[in-house]
Amino acid sequence: MNIVLLGAPGAGKGTQAAKMVEVFGLPHISTGDMFRKAVADGTPMGVAAKGFMDKGELVPDDVVIGIVKERLSQPDCVAGFILDGFPRTAPQADALGAALSDMGRALDAVISIEVPREALVGRLTSRRQCRACGRIYNTMGEMPAVHGVCDDCGGEVYQRDDDTVATVTNRLDVYDKNTEPLIAYYETRGLLRPIDGDRSPHVVFADVRKALEG
Ligand code: AMP
């Protein structure tokens, strides 16, 4: 299954992706996680991406498209993938369609997790994440048993630099302008599966599953 997870920052894409990995056994490809790793490793791409990320701006299309194409050509993607945070612009969506078509493949579904904007700011500023494995926690909900230490891998649980109030508003504006139009883009292509994401993660996941298993 070739799946795209669409949704605003804080809609719960990462949380749903983790559940989908468990159930469907597909690789989770998060462009945000890939950039955060590049920043942590201090690679040239990471250094270039950090300036955009810290302001809540998008990394240029050609950079993102390049890393996604490279990732999709890896052997673990042969049976399918879950793309999280990509595509985010119309040129990225076009490039994804073209890359898949070159491989003789196509998207099976675009899961669109929809959450009202008022709820997103609170979710993002209370979000915490494991620096090592990417697991997501929330100060208003599930937190690790030991403060600052991931339950799964022992990694450091921290607040992302771009989950601060100052950056969150810009990220949501960038989403509305660049990414929200992709809902119509995929609806026209008959791929869109809208899901109400303003509920607890396991209830949302039950609907995600239904949408994928038909
Ligand atoms: P995320 O973890 O998906 O919220 O991504 C964090 C940041 O990484 C974004 O705010 C962007 O700066 C950058 N980023 C991730 N995915 C993309 C993408 N598909 N296109 C452009 N920039 C991206």
Determine the N-to-C terminus distance.
Answer: 13 Å
Share of helical residues: 40-55%
Q: How would you characterize the largest beta sheet?
A: 5 strands, parallel
Distinct small molecules bound, one entry per kind: adenosine monophosphate
Widest sheet: strand ordering: 2-3-1-4-8
CATH fold type of the domain at 2-26 and 79-115 and 178-213: Rossmann fold
Q: Count helical runs.
A: 9
> What amount of the residues lies in strands?
15-25%
CATH architecture of the domain at 2-26 and 79-115 and 178-213: 3-Layer(aba) Sandwich
Low-pLDDT segments: none
Shape label = globular
Please explain how this structure is put together.
The chain is of the alpha/beta class. The protein has a domain at 2-26 and 79-115 and 178-213: P-loop containing nucleotide triphosphate hydrolases (Rossmann fold). The protein has nine helices and eight strands. The chain has helices at residues 13-24, 31-41, 44-55, 61-72, 90-102, 117-125, 165-179, 181-188, 201-213; strands at 2-7, 28-30, 81-84, 109-114, 127-130, 136-138, 157-158, 192-196. The strands form two sheets. It has a five-stranded parallel β-sheet with strand order 2-3-1-4-8, sandwiched between helices. Strand 5 (127-130) and strand 6 (136-138) form a beta hairpin. It starts with a strand and ends with a helix. The relative contact order is 0.19. Adenosine monophosphate binds next to helix 2 and helix 3.
